[in-house]
Amino acid sequence: MRIEEEYVKSGYFWLPERKDRKIPGTLTISDGGDIELEVVGLFNENVESINDVDDLSRINGHIEKDGLVTLDSCFYTKKNISFGGISKSKVCVNRVLSGMAYEKDEYFTFNSFSFSVDCFDEWVGVTGIHVDNDWTNEIATITYKPQKNITHHLDNGMQLEICFEYTPPNSSKKTEAKITQRAYFKLLSEELRPLDDFIEVAFKLTNLMCFAVDDTVTIKNLIANSSEIQRELSEGGSYLVPIHIYYKSIPFSEKEPNKSWHQMLFSYGTIKNNAQNVFNSWINAYEIIAPALNLYFSTKSGAQKYLDGKFLALAQGLETYHRRTSDEKLMDTSEFESLVSKISENCPEKYLEWLNGRLMYGNEINLGKRLNRIIEPFKDRLGDKKQRNKLMRLIVDTRNYLTHYNEELKSRAAQGRELWFLCQKMEVIFQLHFLKVIGLTDEEIVSIVESSYPLKRKLNEI
Length: 462
Prior knowledge:
It is built from 13 helices and 16 strands. It is α+β, with helices and mostly antiparallel strands.
């Protein structure tokens, strides 16, 4: 996750079951979500504890500015014990919930979960700020109209809102007038839901933003609320306590992307008339094509450090995508089973195990045929028949060479710059199919292809 401001805070920390022993320490959260707690001494400070495996599944604390915090799924990375002096130990923390001290076995449940991602304001493209310049009279007028939340209902029972918050100008400053607006997602649920339910949906929506922006964007500014966590106001009434959440999320890019809407694959304006269906289609797609999606995004987030690995992930992803969306076989199942039975009857017993291994996937179509089926809906965008056949043959030969390193295939496999262009071609095939996955019509896809600079560039390279 994106940590936009330095997070290094001191305080006192204790185990929920040992509130009587509080030790000083410093909590540090780095950009990307790496969390470390450095404490003076140990939570169980005795000589025997040095070699013991401590239960640090949950740690409570009280830190400067933020107040109460809960550190979840923790373990020591360095243990020191003092013998009259000062020693420091280090603890790795899986996630932090700031604003509440949860008990050892208390569940994290919430009704709402808000977050943003890099480039989200540019992707949404909705603003209430209006600037009117009267050059003749040398007058500039800036007005702001608060924007209404945009609501979408999800199939999982949650409500997804695109929300807008703003800060008005500081009335005490006479030399500056500044209005800022920030857009963010909010997931809402009438009943309390586990934190992991919200994180799972947020992860899928972040990946949707990566696809739409055509870059790796990172989740940030996570705040959850629960109807069960409220504080009383001195003048009466109560308010929901905001729980700020930190963890090491994926995808993550050290460099925050800076993109305007015309550099993206598509913006919210492209899908706004059918946005609810788009969000639901994307989230539901994970039930079927999650392995293919994960392979695709591994090539976009930098997980594949080498070009060979990126190509193999894309090739496997395309094959997996077709396998998950089609039940096409080489022959009818009953016909194949009959053929296997006849072959097995005539096979010497000592080779049966080997034969069964060979025939296990014998009714699957090969990669070349799968690529042909995948390319078919967009064949007009991928060159003439000769160019498409050459493309499919190159993908198959390169995959086979990089998988088996057969010297006979080396001369037919793509390498260097050609391999990079081949990856671009495979990536654009994925993107065209993902546009269908989110429910866009052929006409809408054509419109995106014609107006999206990143997609046009990749297709022109083809």
